[in-house]
Amino acid sequence: MTRGAPEAGAAGAGGSPRILVGADAQHAGRLAAGVVLSTVRANPAAVLGLATGSSPLPLYAALADAAMDFSRVSGFALDEYLGLPDGHPQSYAEVIRTAVTEPLGLDPRRVHVPDPHGTDHAGHAAEYDAAIDAAGGVDVQILGVGSNGHIGFNEPGSAFDSRTRVVALAERTRQDNARFFDTPDQVPRECLTQGIATIFGARHLLLIAHGAQKAEPVRRALHGPVTEDFPASIIQRHPRVTVVLDEAAATLLGRASAE
Description:
The protein is α/β, with parallel strands linked by helices and 259 residues long. Helix content is 29%, strand content 16%. Helix 2 (57-65) links the parallel strand 2 and strand 3 (74-77).
């Protein structure tokens, strides 16, 4: 059964996050891979929540280098753009296929990405959440954090009790993601994303961030007020969180936070 997120005004009830700091993005990726590998060793049929973007790529590369059988592992992607054709290199279905499913040897039938091509997006979103529940819930949810605090594509103002749904992308998010496209105008304006409550239902959140530009978002996620205006702050209320950073992303946390 998926655990619901606490209400916006509820008292914090999360545990202290474990924070791991690597020298660079590749080192951080290996540290994050250790978290995933320990989960799969304990449960070869583990369910992983799969993020896209640049932050998790070193993690996926490290997992691909590991001598591990992932054939029984299931995966659920966080989100998918609306408006891109099948096979578009920046569709998250394609990114997951090329960065995760094939390199790790996952069974494609066990890897799920929101379907952006139907007309009943609300119905599909409900089915996607139900499929996560039917799989037993997510064991480790891999996350990045946007410069405006989004997780998945839950932009500022997203309700903590939100489930998978269609959202409009903030202009800042579109600008940040323009580097993946030939021109900024090609960046989609809408997507299907797991909601904050869907994400919060995972048993373990694994947040990854690299680079000096992520130092302030990481600080706010871990130490700022818990508010729907900065969705990543919800991780403060989750009972099990691991945050993996490179040195640049950890600069605002202080030495005591680094392992």
